[in-house]
Amino acid sequence: MKKLLSLFLVLALCFAMTACGSEGPSEEKQEGPLDLTGTWKQTNSQADDSWQEAIIESGTITVNWVSDNGDTKSLYWAGSYEAPSEAATEYVWTSNNDHEQTDASLLASSDDTKIFTYKDGELSYEVSALGATTTVRLAKQ
């Protein structure tokens, strides 16, 4: 009888834990608009000492080429950032280039616009140089 009671209690606990925990630990409920402000670092760089870094703040996004383990930064993109107005798990916006900043930088993009995508905790965009295009992926720091 004791074993049967113990088994019943274990099963009841298992069902209770499953029913109450319908959201996994990686699924956080977001309150308010999606906040992408802050510093983002490239996760798919092929070099240990160089990467791209994006800084989103006050309606702008700035992307730098970073080298020498962070000692050297060169502007790649300076443009507009339109913050999401509601909670979201995905977000896409078109950034307008601030040519006053990028025209003076040798390594900056000359594109008029650039599409940025946020999905699954990752910020991404395409970079073209010397006839090759790659997708840069960044994580918030």
Helix-strand blueprint:
Elements: H1 2-20, E1 38-42, E2 51-57, E3 60-67, E4 72-80, E5 90-96, H2 99-102, E6 113-119, E7 122-129, E8 132-140
Antiparallel strand pairs: 1-2, 1-8, 2-3, 3-4, 5-6, 6-7, 7-8
What is the molecular shape? globular
The Cα radius of gyration reads: 22 Å
Proportion of residues in extended strands: 35-45%
SSE order, one letter for each helix or strand? HEEEEEHEEE
Polypeptide structure, described:
- The longest helix has 19 residues, at 2-20.
- The protein is of the alpha+beta class and 141 residues long.
- It has 2 helices and 8 strands; from the N terminus they run αβββββαβββ.
- Strand 3 and strand 4 form a beta hairpin.
- It is globular.
- Helices cover 16% and strands 43% of the residues.
- The N and C termini lie far apart (56 Å).
- The chain has an 8-stranded antiparallel β-sheet with strand order 4-3-2-1-8-7-6-5.
What would the keywords be for this entry?
141 residues; alpha+beta; 2 helices; 8 strands; globular; disordered N terminus
Summarize this entry quickly.
This protein is 16% helix and 43% strand. With 141 residues, the protein is of the alpha+beta class.
